[in-house]
Amino acid sequence: MDCDASSHEPEEEPKSLLEMNGEEVFRLFAEAPVEWFLQAIGLLRSAYVLWVAHSHCFNRRWARSKQGQPFDAKDYADYKTDKPGQGYVLLAGCAFENLIKGLIVAGAGFECPDGKLPEFAGGHGGHNLLELAKQHTGLTFSASEKRLLKNLTDAIIWKGRYHTPKKQGHLPKNDPATGYFQHYPSPQQTTDLFSRIMRAYPEGALSKHGNIGGLPAFSLVETWVALLAEECGKLPGLGPCGREPETGEGAGGAG
C-alpha cells in the first residue's frame, strides 16, 4: 500500500525571536491581541501611580481651603503645574486605545502584510475612542461613559500633551473656553469601563501567540479584572468626593 511520504516529514521548528527578520518580528507583536491587551493594562496601572501624585496635590489645596486659608501664589502655581493629573488622563486614554485596538487585532482577517499597521477607522488619526469603541466592542455606552471616552480622546490628541490644541476646531463651538478645562475621571469610573471592554474580548483571543502568549494566566480576562479592581480600590479619593483608600470600595473623583 502506498504511503504519503510527506506525512512522515518532521514539522518545521518555529523560529526563535532572534532568528526572525524585521517583518516577522513586527508581525509577531502587531498581530498578537495579547500584546495590545497587556500594554493597555500596563498603561492603566501606570496611570494609577500618577493619580496618587495628583490626589496629593489636589487634597493639599482642598485642606487649605477647608481651613479658610486663601488661595495664594503657591497654591496657584501648584494648581497650574499639577501635571500628574494631566499624565493620569493621558495614560488612561492610551490604555483604552490599546485595549480597543487589541479587539480589532483579535478580529478575523487582521494582518500587517506590508510591515505596517493598517489605518484604524474612527477619525482623529485613529484616536477617537468613542467611535472605535462603538464600532468594535459590541457594547452600548451610557452618557457618562461617552463623556469619559470623549475626555480621554481629548487627552490623547492634545490635553495630555500640550497647553493648547493645534487647531481651533478641537474646542467646543458653543463654549470654546471650556475646552481648556481638564477633567479628571475617577479611577473607579475609568476602571469600570475598562473592565467592560476587557470582557468584550472573544474567547481564546488572548491565547494567540506573541512574545509571551500561550501562558495560561495571561488569557484569563477575569484575572486582570480582579487585579485592577484591587489596585483601584486602594487609591485615594479627591476632596469631598473621595473615599478613604483603606475601605477598599474604590476611589472617588473630581468632575
Distance between the termini: 78 Å
Largest sheet: none
Helical element count?
8
* Oligomer category: single chain
Rounded Rg: 22 Å
The best one-word shape is elongated
Output mean pLDDT: 81
* Strand residue content: under 5%
Structural category: mainly alpha
Number of domains: 1
pLDDT < 50 runs, ≥5 residues: 242-255
Give the beta-strand count: 0
Notes on the protein architecture:
The protein has 255 residues and is mainly alpha-helical. It has one domain. 49% of the residues lie in helices and 0% in strands. Helix 4 packs parallel to helix 7 (187-198). It is elongated.
List the defining traits of the structure above:
255 residues, mainly alpha, disordered C terminus
Lay out the secondary structure.
Layout: H1 22-30, H2 33-66, H3 73-80, H4 83-106, H5 129-136, H6 143-159, H7 187-198, H8 221-233
Helix pairs in contact: 2-4, 4-5, 4-6, 4-7, 7-8
Question: Summarize this, please?
Answer:
This protein has helices at residues 22-30, 33-66, 73-80, 83-106, 129-136, 143-159, 187-198, 221-233. By secondary structure, it is mostly helical.
